[in-house]
Amino acid sequence: MNTGDKVSPGRTSDARAELIGMARRNMLHAEAGTIEQADGVVRVPASNYFDERQWQREVDQVFKRVPLMLAMSCELKAAGDFKTLEVCGVPVLLVRDDEQVVRAFINSCSHRGAVVVTEQRGSRTRFSCPYHAWTYDGRGDLVSIYAESDFGEIDKSCHGLTRLPAGERAGMVWVSLDPESTLDLDVFLCGYDQLLAQFDFADWSLFEDRTLKGPNWKIAYDGYLDLYHLPILHRNTFGANMPNQALYDAWGPHQRVSSPDPGLLKLKDSNESDWPTARLLQGVWTIFPHVSIASFDGGGGRGVMVSQLFPGQTPLESYTVQNYVMERLPESDAVRDRAHEQFGLLEMVVRDEDYATGLRQQAALRSRPDAQVLFGRNEAGGQHFHGFIERLLACDSENLSDLFSMNSA
Ligand code: FES
Ligand SMILES: [Fe+2]
After folding, report:
1. Are residues 56 and 76 both part of a single domain?
2. Would you state the pLDDT for residue 299?
3. Mean pLDDT computed over every residue of the chain
4. Which of 110, 117, 127, 131 gets mutated to test ligand 1 (max ligand atoms within 8 A of its CB)?
5. Are residues 86 and 142 in the same domain?
6. 10, 80, 140, 161: which one has the fewest Cβ atoms less than 10 Å from its Cβ?
7. Are residues 363 and 218 in the same domain?
8. What is the Cα–Cα distance from 196 to 202, expressed in whole angstroms?
């Protein structure tokens, strides 16, 4: 994976123009009461959601081959800030080094493999292994060996932490779990990061995060691409008056989901340069294969819930880290309380409505192993997602770049 930073002059205005184009298209549909439909109804084998071999292929050929969004940049604001997490069995350490570059490593000591950093977050310039105190710096270089003269001679420069390709775009950090990956991050992102950059996440802050258990990762992910269920499954919480219709925009496998919004029509005859960016960013922004970003009013400013979805130990488990990220952290107790209430509701909705339904759904599907599930012409997002997974599983590692280049917008 190429990790270089990329700044393209003019991209910001291109991205805003693209957002405006999408808003104009949204208005046309909102006025006409129409959506764009896929060509036909697509069928996906039910066993894709629970078959052990299928799931292992997805872990190995999806999660371990493409860059994953593992942190918001604001979680690693200052030099020395670090974060650890485990993804598909790989312990990962993320650190912002003294040159402000975010680096990623397998969090396993080069001596005998112990997990070097056991805290979830913190800030420091040296990382000392809890087993025998071998110590690494923020670049993962081995800087000292405890009782070195007793240990015997080794070349320290060859015994740093194993580096994982990492790159930062749009206020987010992507990491490949494959140390040898040559997939260029910008090829993988297909320009989508230029749109995501319009949020200005680098300047936002993490309010809180929590982890939820859920069903098979694709059952969970389907829900993030699906507005069809909102007024039904969520009718008792937030969904009663929500639209069930969706417009999908894709950049390679990454998709934005928005609903035709009659409220946008108020902007129609005003100067486009005055259109509020927050309005242009409405909806759900998914990042393949495992992230969804949903906007909401954080009770005193803009907020988003960034959900990172990871496969669990078996095909029937996943876990989701919900990160509540706010443009401005609440400054008063009243605003803080409102934000907690808002985030509590979002957690409850996902846990008790989406994932509870998904867990029952996967159990029911296992009782009909030869069945197929359907994605309608109004569910183009799910069609695109499952189609891309299929192409990715069929793609050799040496052709990965071509797969993403071919599918970029
Ligand atoms: S395993 Fe880390 S110092 Fe021994
Ligand atoms: Fe939902």
Report:
1. no
2. 60
3. 94
4. 131
5. yes
6. 10
7. yes
8. 11
In single-letter form, the type of residue at position 296 comes to F
Residue 174 Cα, ligand 1 centroid: separation in angstroms?
A: 27
249 and 370 part of one domain = yes
Contact 289, 253 (CB under 8 A): yes
> Do 241 and 374 lie in a common domain?
yes
Which residues line the pocket of ligand 1, CB cutoff 6 A?
109, 111-114, 129, 131-134
Residue 248 has phi, psi (to 5 degrees) of -115, 135
Percentage of the chain beyond pLDDT 70 is 95
Residue 96 lies in a domain: yes
Residue 56: alpha-carbon gap to chain centroid = 20
Please write the tens of the pLDDT for every residue from 99-150.
Answer: 999 999 999 999 999 999 999 999 999 999 999 999 999 999 999 999 999 9
Nearest to 223 by CA among 257, 185, 264: 257
d(CA 297, CA 304) in angstroms, rounded, equals 8
Are both 316 and 257 inside the same structural domain?
Answer: yes
Domain that holds residue 377: 11-67+192-406
| Number of the ligand 1 atom closest to the C-alpha atom of 129 | 2
- Mean pLDDT value across residues 237-249: 94
Total domain count, the chain: 2
Q: What Cα–Cα distance (Å) separates residue 57 from each residue in 53, 60, 65, 401?
A: 6, 5, 11, 19
Q: Which residue's C-alpha comes closest to atom 1 of ligand 1?
A: 112
Q: What is the mean pLDDT of residues 294-314?
A: 87
